[in-house]
Amino acid sequence: DKPNVRKMGGSHQEKQLHQLLEKQKQFKLAALQAKKKGEVNQAKEYLRIAKGFDKLIEASNCGLPVDMATVPVPPSAKIALETDFDIVSAEDCTPGSPGSEDDILEKLEKDLIVQIKKSLETRNHFKAVGDVASANRFEQQALHSKKDLDLVRVARKHKHPVPRYHYETRSFSIVQCNTDLGDNDLELTIAQGVNYNVPNPKEIDTYIRFEFPWPTEEPYRDKTATVYNTNNPVYDEKFTLPIQRNVRACQRVFKRHAIKCEVWSKGCSLWFCSSGCCSSIHSCFSSVRGFFRGDSLIGTALVKLQPLETKCMLHESFDLMDGRKTVGGKLEVKVRLRNPIQAKQVERVEEKWLVIDH
């Protein structure tokens, strides 16, 4: 039943209640239209959202404040927001003379398009981490920028004066989270080697063997494919490794241990025969090692896991070592988790924001 709204002479509360009822009505209408199109799941989702307005309407009717910035954006506005904000590109616009009103309007248009895209990307991130209120807030923010964009485009099309506008600094907290990963996934990317210190840089064939120290009884081991004829190899291979973030023994692994990445050269050891031992089996047998070798270790990179206690991504280049001695060259490695091991990674972000003064 429709709430009994007290007459308050157009008060803020009454206007707010009217907005809530109108938005709920739009979701119910969208559900009906989706059902007629045979989109049953979409219709159910719209009805679920419409039902969520009941508590907000009840709170507003009792005189309690409602944060309208967190209210879901109606379906019709959302469709327009996501499909219409970048129809006009910079190439479609006729540039005016330097410093002209058209130049200013073009700059405003570009800034607003960037804002809308940024707001929608942030909305999608919050939606993926389950923060519905923040997702709705950024959707509302995108909608406001879309209205400003429409106003700027009308002014530009009809040669109206530049509307009043200002820039302001907006700050917000965002939880860094790799939403494409599961809670117990660790993604290891062996990116590339950098300037391996070898006597045959244009002939060396290398691959990476790595050992992840979990489970402790049987550590996870694997290797990349071989990259040929370069001491700056691009491996670009990803491995998804299982972890158990809620197990204390696994948490201790992150605190104390590292992923061991070994760089191996394929074939006979050119470390000990730089004159081209492959051309003579005899010379390989008479090398320092005294026998024909298969593969040889160039160096080892240790990727310490401790930073992942408080960050969800580690991306660095690590020196190649022989024990405690550097041997020259680096290995670029990236490690990602859905969330850090100890606590969520919350960062404060500040953005310069354009607002058109209506």
Automatic annotation (TrEMBL):
Residues 166-318 form the C2 domain. InterPro entries: C2_dom, C2_domain_sf, C2_Freud, CC2D1A/B, CC2D1A/B_DM14. Pfam families: C2, CC2D1A-B_DM14. GO terms for molecular function: DNA-binding transcription repressor activity, RNA polymerase II-specific. SUPFAM superfamilies: C2 domain (Calcium/lipid-binding domain, CaLB). Signal peptide: none annotated. Belongs to the CC2D1 family. This is C2 domain-containing protein. It comes from Homalodisca liturata.
